[in-house]
UniProtKB/TrEMBL annotation:
Protein name: Cytochrome c
Gene3D superfamilies: Cytochrome c-like domain
A GO term, aspect molecular function: heme binding
Organism: Neobacillus vireti LMG 21834
Keywords: Electron transport, Heme, Iron, Membrane, Metal-binding, Transmembrane, Transmembrane helix, Transport
Length: 227
């Protein structure tokens, strides 16, 4: 009899746990965060990054609703990108402007754009020759990303930006270079993929090493909008 009662209690507890898991309580909390984050996005981000987040805003803004991008970065990365911005570009630091809750909710809203998780073949370590990388960069990257990675409005990210380099790993930059960003100007560069540039893995590592070696340029590009 005692065993039957114990077994019944175990079944009840399991049922409660499953009930809570299927009740949508946690999903509801996340849905609230996403809804609140959408309001923050519309008020602060839409003008640059666009209504759908694909960079179609009236001002300068990169495509952040992008499966390649979202598959590479963490929620913490998204949070840091927004909080600290990009000095010298149209992307201001929102840390002083938004509350901690707003930043977290905005991150949840942007993460909700992710519909799939892509996998990438990345070298275990990204190490290269910066001098050779500079030559490769000037041939393949300068046209969009500007001299010494300064960036060009509506063309390419400021790669030498101190906040970008601080909150982006070498592997993340390597993946962005190799695999590109779908539905943007940034096509894949890795040999074997469907891109105009057919670079070897070491070529890309050399470019990343060059980008890391660029000294910070405090001069603001003339074609960048003011925050």
């Amino acid at each position: 009899m005692k065993k039957i009662l114990i077994g019944s209690y175990v079944l009840i507890i399991i049922g409660v746990i499953l009930g809570i898991g299927n009740s949508g309580i946690f999903d509801s909390e996340n849905s609230k965060a996403i809804a609140s984050g959408e309001k923050v996005y519309i008020k602060n981000c839409l003008v640059c990054h666009g209504e759908t987040g694909k960079g179609e805003g009236s001002n300068a803004g990169t495509a952040i609703n992008n499966q390649h991008f979202l598959s590479v970065i963490s929620d913490k990365d998204l949070y840091n990108y927004v909080k600290y911005g990009r000095e010298g570009t149209a992307m201001p630091a929102y840390g002083p402007r938004l509350s901690e809750k707003d930043l977290v909710n905005l991150t949840a809203f942007m993460r909700n754009w992710q519909t799939k998780e892509l996998e990438f073949n990345v070298p275990k370590t990204v190490s290269g020759d910066p001098d050779r990388g500079m030559k490769q960069y000037n041939v393949y990257c300068l046209n969009c990303h500007g001299e010494a990675g300064a960036g060009k409005i509506k063309m390419g990210t400021a790669l030498s930006n101190p906040q970008y380099l601080k909150f982006t790993t070498d592997k993340q930059i390597w993946i962005a270079t190799a695999y590109g960003r779908e539905e943007t100007r940034m096509g894949p560069s890795l040999k074997g993929l469907e891109g105009v540039r057919q670079l070897k893995k070491q070529d890309i590592s050399d470019i990343i090493s060059y980008i890391r070696s660029i000294k910070e340029n405090k001069e603001v590009p003339k074609d960048y909008l003011k925050p």
